[in-house]
């Protein structure tokens, strides 16, 4: 079961901090992050990749994006 | 009038006599650092920079203040103004007065008046093919300010970036005046490539930027790779990407930094090829240690920016 980080309504750097915190907990190999700006989408992608995660899928959801990331290289 | 609204340059320029032209500019913004005294210094250095970027000498300044008088203690305002005054003094400029209003959001800045010889105005739009490009301050203040907001920057790094932002462009401008300069601007909110794009548009030339030579605050590389890139950088990129091509080997981190909005950034100078090395050496000798040659103006009329 993937962990979910809901960062909608928050502006950067908050979504990145929440993503990094979830990654650092080390309990999830799969995380879903919900954001609602292009900036957050780009920055969460960078945050995930810098920690050895791979962005699997980015889908538009409502006004924002649903980003799913998994630990390790694709 | 030598330079006005139609030219959208760093400051307006108006000829008084054959010997003297007035340079006028105004700039103010909301706090970018927590310390009110340093905020005052940075806001003043930023406002003065537009005069330096035209090749001029600032002479007088007026304070512009918006202050939430109900929510904030007046001592905060005093410290901001003191920061401004100290920076104005350092620049050899006289403060003549100012105006303040009550506002929900704190804002501070200056209107600045300077002088220049009418024949020696350094506009943005005078790139000459063959000129070399020089940048006088390292990039990355926007990214590091984002990391500061996330409480991830060390006190040492916060102090370092604060000092970069508060540094006057006066010495760089004075040194540059001794060389054959084509065009000049200062790097602020549009980032390096955004301001370079303004220089290139309408110039009939293109430019090549050597990304490996661009001075960067080292820590900004790591923070950019972790996703601490301000929204302004993405906006700058979206606005100008039709003009810009990155070579495949330019890492994403460096691309982000090239669009990172700068607060009170350095001067971006185009200098004739024969003077280029001497200018950089003179800048370094004059204490501007980060000054570097970062690229070249090319005789391609397509008005493109190649980053390699």
UniProtKB/TrEMBL annotation, chain A:
Gene3D superfamilies to which the protein is assigned, alphabetical: TusA-like domain (3.30.110.40)
Domain UPF0033: 5-29
Domain of life, per lineage: Bacteria
Entry GO MF terms: transferase activity
Pfam families: TusA
Stretches that traverse the bilayer: none
SUPFAM superfamilies named among the record's database cross-references: SirA-like
Protein transport keyword on record: no
Keywords, in A-Z order: Transferase
Keyword Manganese: no
Family under the similarity heading: Belongs to the sulfur carrier protein TusA family.
PANTHER family tied to this protein: SULFUR CARRIER PROTEIN YEDF-RELATED (PTHR33279:SF6)
Name of the protein this chain belongs to: TusA-related sulfurtransferase
């Amino acid at each position: 079961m993937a962990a979910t980080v809901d960062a909608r309504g928050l502006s950067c750097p908050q979504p990145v901090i929440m993503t990094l915190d979830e990654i650092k907990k080390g309990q999830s190999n799969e995380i879903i992050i919900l954001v609602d700006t292009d900036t957050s989408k780009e920055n969460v992608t960078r945050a995930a990749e810098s920690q050895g995660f791979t962005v699997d899928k980015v889908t538009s959801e409502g006004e924002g994006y649903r980003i799913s990331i998994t630990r390790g290289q694709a | 009038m030598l330079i006005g609204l139609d030219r959208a340059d760093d400051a307006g320029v108006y000829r008084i006599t054959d010997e003297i032209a007035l340079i006028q500019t105004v700039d103010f913004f909301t706090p970018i650092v927590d310390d009110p005294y340093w905020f005052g210094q940075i806001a003043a250095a930023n406002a003065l920079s537009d005069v330096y970027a035209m090749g001029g000498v600032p002479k007088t300044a007026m304070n512009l203040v918006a202050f939430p008088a109900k929510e904030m203690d007046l001592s905060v305002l005093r410290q901001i103004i003191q920061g401004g005054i100290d920076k104005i003094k350092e620049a050899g400029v006289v403060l003549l007065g100012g105006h303040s209003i009550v506002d929900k959001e704190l804002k501070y800045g200056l209107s600045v008046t300077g002088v220049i010889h009418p024949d020696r105005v350094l506009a943005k739009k005078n790139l000459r093919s063959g000129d070399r490009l020089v940048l006088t301050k390292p990039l990355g203040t926007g990214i590091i300010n984002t990391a500061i907001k996330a409480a991830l920057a060390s006190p040492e790094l916060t102090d370092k970036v604060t000092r970069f932002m508060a540094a006057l462009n006066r010495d760089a401008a004075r040194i540059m005046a001794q060389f054959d300069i084509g065009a000049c601007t200062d790097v602020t909110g549009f980032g390096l490539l955004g301001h370079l794009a303004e220089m290139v548009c309408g110039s009939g030339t293109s430019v090549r930027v050597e990304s490996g030579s661009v001075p960067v605050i080292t820590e900004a590389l790591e923070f950019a790779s972790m996703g601490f890139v301000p929204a302004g950088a993405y906006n700058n990129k979206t606005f100008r990407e039709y003009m810009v091509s990155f070579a495949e080997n330019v890492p994403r981190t460096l691309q982000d930094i090239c669009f990172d909005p700068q607060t009170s950034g350095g001067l971006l100078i185009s200098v004739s090829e024969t003077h280029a090395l001497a200018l950089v050496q003179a800048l370094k000798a004059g204490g501007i240690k980060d000054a570097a040659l970062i690229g070249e103006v090319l005789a391609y009329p397509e008005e493109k920016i190649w980053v390699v």
